[in-house]
Amino acid sequence: MKKVSILMTSGLFIVICVAVLWQWNAFSEDRGKPAERKEETSIVTSVKVESNQLLVKQVFYGLESTRQYQAVIPAQAAEVKCTDSEENPCGDGLLPKGEKLQFEYILKTGPGLSLLLNDWMIVLKEAAVNKTRIEIIDQYNRKGTWAAGLPLKGFKQTELLRYYVFEGVHSTPSLYWQEKPLFKLNGQKGIDYYISKKEQVIYEFDSLGTFSDNHLTVVITEDQRAIHGNGLLLVGNMLTDKGIERQLATAFLASKFGTDRGKEGWTIEALASLVTKQEPETAKSKAMARELANALTTEETAAFVTYFSKERNLDVSLLDEYLSSIKGMNTKFFLKNSQKGQAGFPMLFTDSRSVIVNGNEKDELEVVIKGKEQLFPLVPTMAALGYKAKIGTDFNAVELSSDNSQYSFNLKNKTFILDGQSFGILENPFQYLNGEWYLEKRWLHAIFKVQISESDERLFLET
């Protein structure tokens, strides 16, 4: 019995030693590997207020040391100076590599009762900024108030100066000053109000509740206009409640698109209409809102609104990806509508399955889903089937010819000629969508005798 106990103890000791040795080797290997550094860039900007100008020092911290960034200098910046992490002057042309870059420049202001600065900070292309801090030292103005498109974190006033600290996640926040003093009040979560009268009504809208992860500074002015900045909105107290609600929703959404907020104006307006349930003002945004209402169920609309209101950063690709995920089909609705042109593009989805024509996979064929219809792109589909297409300039004549057959369609009279013999058709088999001609699946078989079969992953066309 004693021998068994000794053997069990010895075996257990050996197992423990092996386990410890294995863990030590794994630990040593991990220590030998260089840690992957995640880029966490921050900006600290100090603004010194002088007569008719602002002296700005803007420092980027936590840059990727091996990357060479490109700076975008604001048009109003003058006498720009750059230094690297060793405080050496930057050379002409490309910026030096390193984890720190510092810029100093002057912004001319001029006299006036108020000042609004948009896009006044230097931007480094492809630098994902996680935190921005702005410190304002005002020794010049004895009265007035500063506000920024960031939350106010601190304020101190002495006989000689006023000191403000703003801090948040916006990388290019607007800056605002007015001579008439403002009182800061907290509104619903995510909104700071600056008002000139303490008895001013503070607006709260249920529709904006899901925007709580974003920050918006709202300055109430005695006006009927609304002026949008970056993370900051000047809104007149003479607007209706619905008008103010629409402007707040638009401002929240615009801040999510960053530098693309102007380019995505139609998209932002259409999304704001989903939030506030108010009709957009421009024709293209109205068309986009109608397409969204027709394509999405009530539950899908609610899920979509929750998605884009909670996301900090948006672009048209992300919006299309989410629409595709909730519908189970691919779409480029927002991408198409972001392109120039006043006409709105319809909501179209594409079948994610690959198309096989006579045994060959055709990557260029994207089958469009419109309602319950499956639409094949006319020209590339017929080319894959061995036909050449010719479409008349008046869009009333279509000719499709192969080595064996020739079709001539008169769309106005709803007839076609096949090898000299005339046939009637009950409806137009072609559809013109987004600048491209399509052919509905059933007509491929009915007119061109194409055999069609499908599986969960593929569509098969056989002649």
Helix-strand blueprint:
Elements (H helix, E strand, L loop, with lengths): L1 H31 L8 E10 L2 E9 L9 E2 L4 E7 L17 E8 L5 E4 L5 E2 L4 E10 L6 E4 L3 E6 L4 E7 L6 E4 L4 E4 L4 E5 L20 E6 L4 E3 L3 E5 L4 H16 L8 H12 L6 H13 L2 H13 L5 H12 L2 E2 L1 H5 L11 E2 L3 E4 L2 E2 L6 E3 L2 E5 H7 L3 E4 L5 E5 L4 E5 L4 E4 L2 E4 L5 E4 L2 E5 H6 L4 E4 L3 E5 L1
Parallel strand pairs: 1-8, 14-15, 15-17, 20-32
Antiparallel strand pairs: 1-2, 2-5, 3-7, 4-5, 6-12, 8-11, 9-12, 10-11, 13-14, 16-17, 18-19, 19-22, 20-21, 22-23, 23-30, 24-25, 25-26, 26-27, 27-28, 29-30, 31-32
Helix pairs in contact: 2-3, 3-4, 5-6
Q: Can you describe this structure in just a few lines?
A:
This protein has 463 residues and is an alpha+beta fold. The chain is 25% helix and 33% strand. The protein has nine helices and 32 strands.
CA-atom Rg in angstroms = 32 Å
N→C terminal distance: 85 Å
DSSP helix fraction: 10-25%
User: What proportion of the residues form beta strands (DSSP E)?
Assistant: 25-35%
Shape: elongated
The parts where pLDDT drops under 50 for at least 5 residues are 1-37
How many structural units, i.e. domains?
Answer: 3
Q: Characterize the largest beta sheet: strand count, sense, and whether it forms a barrel.
A: 7 strands, mixed
CATH topology heading of the largest domain = Immunoglobulin-like
